[in-house]
């Protein structure tokens, strides 16, 4: 029978290594041997439920042994796991039901595995697909593993567009990316990982769960809410002799720097922390410096900061700064960026763009112009990715996205430039607009606002066209007076020739993905439909003429 390199650990599971889950205010340890047995029983229940080879199964579980066992149980049953985020706190049941319906229309699952409360809601709410808990599926006998499915998993992504898309990731692509991450980080026998990221999506799923599990490395896992409540407890996982590796978006480092005091770290030793991968959004050098100011005195090595670039359509990781290599930055004047042209590094507005390292093993990266021709170093263009880790495509043929597959290459829809082989990411082409021959990126405006003191998670910038021409909308969640003034000054400086409006909106009004990215297209649609609740503080609202 064809073997699956992702599940081979289940054949010889370790009894002395495992995963610690933070549950009920304590660490709950599960040996890989116990997780493997749990997964095999779930696989038997999945097959008994009538799930066929290559069927799709939604896995909606919070961080815990049920998620890990269900994920691998689906693989052992020869089906395709489709990890889905459970309902966020404070979100209405109706809103989540609509979200789940959109996912189900894309995935067409034959089974949903979830926890008891949600299973009951779905069953009594008229959800048509059969729903089971992990415990129900594991109540029967184990089953012999089936041949692997045609895909390792279906990875859902919405990005800034907000529209659900299912990325079909082949077994070979996932295995290749996991192998590339292991080689990049030089993961050894004793290297443990800790993570608070959501386990259902690329960085948390592949980078911080599958990669260590395939090698049966020790692992500490928390829920995002646990990290928010007590980031110092998460940091304690890395104090010697603790975990050596993790990953998170920049806002996680910013949160640590703001919420953790040196007194809370007294006695900590972070000298064994070898790799902190930073990705998923624009990286501000100021955030890294604040993090280092807190962590450096306790042994954290600056060279453990590893900026990276990746996306679900390439499975996960594309580039990453090499271990023991110093951070590199290139100053860029955002108001002078033009696609196909060299970056301008002078001027009062120039800000450091952090390098995201070089292509990982088996991955190719180029930056091209509109015609697909490679551009010289320090010329801004679209980032194009190739190699064994690139996914097959979206499962829905009519999925609209700036990201597209052409002749085996992935046109990412992201803008950036190369310099001596290292990739520098500027922003999303769909979150940009051309004004007087230059390209204005929403990320540039946001980064300038953060630099001016506006908290990153309290601001979002939307760009589009209205009857007044190119338009920028700055959303500030319950802003302080100085934030409004910063938004006025920064926006006028960077968006010269652009109609501008600044809105004071309620807390939690900014739609975000699980990795913290603003869902700009969704919010732009709400803005032009006059469906954003907020008070205008600068500018005049203008009628929309489209996107």
TrEMBL record:
Protein name according to UniProt: AMP-dependent synthetase/ligase domain-containing protein
Domain AMP-dependent synthetase/ligase: from-to ranges: 25-394
Cellular component terms per the entry's GO annotation: plasma membrane
Positions of transmembrane segments: none
One annotated GO molecular function: adenylyltransferase activity
Source domain of life: Bacteria
GO biological process, one term: fatty acid biosynthetic process
Organism: Actinoplanes nipponensis
Family, per entry: Belongs to the ATP-dependent AMP-binding enzyme family.
InterPro entries in the cross-refs: AMP-bd_C_sf, AMP-binding_CS, AMP-dep_synth/lig_dom, ANL_N_sf
């Amino acid at each position: 029978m064809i073997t699956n390199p992702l599940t081979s650990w289940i054949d010889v599971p370790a009894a002395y290594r495992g995963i610690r889950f933070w549950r009920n205010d304590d660490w709950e340890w599960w040996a890989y041997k116990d997780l493997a047995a749990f997964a095999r029983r779930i696989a038997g229940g999945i097959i008994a439920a009538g799930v066929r080879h290559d069927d799709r199964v939604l896995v909606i579980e919070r961080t815990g042994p049920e998620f890990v066992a269900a994920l691998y149980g689906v693989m052992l049953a020869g089906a395709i796991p489709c990890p889905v985020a459970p309902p966020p706190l404070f979100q209405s049941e109706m809103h989540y039901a609509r979200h789940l319906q959109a996912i189900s229309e894309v995935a067409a699952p034959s089974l949903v595995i979830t926890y008891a409360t949600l299973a009951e809601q779905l069953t009594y709410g008229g959800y048509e697909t059969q729903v089971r808990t992990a415990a129900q599926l594991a109540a029967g006998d184990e089953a012999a593993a089936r041949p692997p499915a045609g895909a390792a998993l279906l990875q859902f992504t919405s990005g800034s567009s907000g529209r659900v898309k299912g990325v079909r990731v082949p077994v070979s692509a996932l295995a290749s990316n996991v192998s590339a991450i292991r080689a990049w980080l030089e993961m050894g026998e004793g290297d443990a990982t800790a993570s608070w990221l959501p386990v259902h999506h690329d960085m948390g799923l592949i980078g911080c769960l599958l990669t260590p599990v395939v090698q049966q490395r020790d692992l500490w896992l928390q829920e995002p809410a646990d990290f928010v409540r007590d980031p110092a407890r998460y940091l304690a996982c890395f104090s010697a002799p603790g975990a050596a590796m993790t990953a998170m978006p920049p806002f996680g480092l910013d949160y640590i720097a703001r919420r953790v005091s040196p007194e809370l770290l007294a006695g900590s030793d972070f000298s064994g922390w070898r790799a902190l991968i930073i990705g998923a959004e624009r990286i501000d050098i100021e955030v890294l410096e604040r993090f280092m100011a807190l962590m450096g005195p306790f042994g954290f090595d600056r060279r453990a900061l590893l900026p990276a670039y990746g996306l679900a359509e390439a499975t996960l990781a594309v580039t990453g700064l090499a271990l023991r290599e110093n951070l590199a930055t290139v100053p860029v004047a955002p108001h002078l960026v033009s696609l196909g042209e060299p970056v301008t590094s002078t001027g009062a507005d120039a800000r450091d763009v952090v390098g995201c390292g070089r292509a990982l093993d088996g991955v190719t990266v180029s930056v091209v112009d509109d015609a697909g021709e490679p551009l010289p170093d320090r010329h801004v263009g679209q980032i194009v990715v190739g190699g064994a880790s690139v996914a097959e495509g979206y499962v829905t043929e009519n999925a609209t996205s700036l990201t597209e597959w052409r002749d085996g290459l992935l046109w990412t829809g992201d803008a950036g430039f190369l310099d001596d082989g290292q990739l520098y990411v500027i922003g999303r082409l769909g979150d940009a607009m051309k004004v007087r021959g230059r390209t204005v990126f929403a990320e540039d405006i946001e980064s300038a606002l953060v630099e001016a003191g506006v908290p990153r998670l309290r601001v979002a910038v939307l760009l589009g066209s209205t009857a007044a021409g190119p338009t920028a909308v700055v959303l500030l969640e319950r802003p302080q007076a100085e934030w409004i003034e910063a938004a006025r000054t920064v926006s006028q400086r960077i968006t010269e020739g652009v109609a501008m409006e600044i809105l004071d909106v309620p807390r939690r009004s900014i739609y975000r993905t699980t990795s913290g990215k603003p869902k700009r297209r969704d919010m732009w649609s709400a803005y032009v439909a006059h469906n954003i609740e907020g008070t205008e503080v600068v500018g005049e609202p203008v009628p929309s003429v489209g996107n």
